[in-house]
Amino acid sequence: SAVISQKPSRDICQRGTSLTIQCQVDSQVTMMFWYRQQPGQSLTLIATANQGSEATYESGFVIDKFPISRPNLTFSTLTVSNMSPEDSSIYLCSASGHRYEQYFGPGTRLTVT
Amino acid sequence: AQSVTQLDSHVSVSEGTPVLLRCNYSSSYSPSLFWYVQHPNKGLQLLLKYTSAATLVKGINGFEAEFKKSETSFHLTKPSAHMSDAAEYFCVVSDQIKAAGNKLTFGGGTRVLVKP
Q1: Within A1-113, where are the H helices?
Q2: Distance from CA of B44 to the nearest CA of A (A)
Q3: What is the pLDDT along chain A (113 residues), one digit of tens a residue?
């Protein structure tokens, strides 16, 4: 299994600002993903982070709001841009492992005031 | 297209009694199915997975789930609940096609309360 770390673990940000979340995997992985978990809700896939090419976004999520980088096979970043209180959520990254498993990071708890 | 419905948003059980968490799925292809657990303020932990092998799948911490294609169900059970089982549980489906990029679709979650 892969071990995934995220930074920061939590943050409180003012509306209109941006926050970049980092995700580090302890081994090379093909697929990395970013999810959002709004308060009291389930997880929703934001995008697939593709190494060497643009991320693939799910319906309802756009690159201008959630730019993603994937410079190599162990690292990815998600930026939440021009934040509003509605962006207050837990953001989780995951990496795809053997036999369709995905391993999740601990999440970044974001509060926008 | 794939989707997951967890039939109970909350389940309350007494310690030592059985736990049943119900999950129905929809998938256009042969699915992989998973159960994840999320303890308060913790990340997601994989409990067990089904990927077209044995239909009865055993996972960690005494949990197991049975894949029933005819019923499109993947219910999670444990014979005897422990206080540490209090958490949120997610049923998850993934279509087994490479083009889908192994995307996961999460159910709405079931919050389990264990009473002493």
Answers
A1: none
A2: 6
A3: 789 999 999 999 999 999 999 999 999 888 899 999 999 899 999 999 988 888 999 999 999 999 999 999 999 999 999 999 999 999 999 998 666 678 899 999 999 99
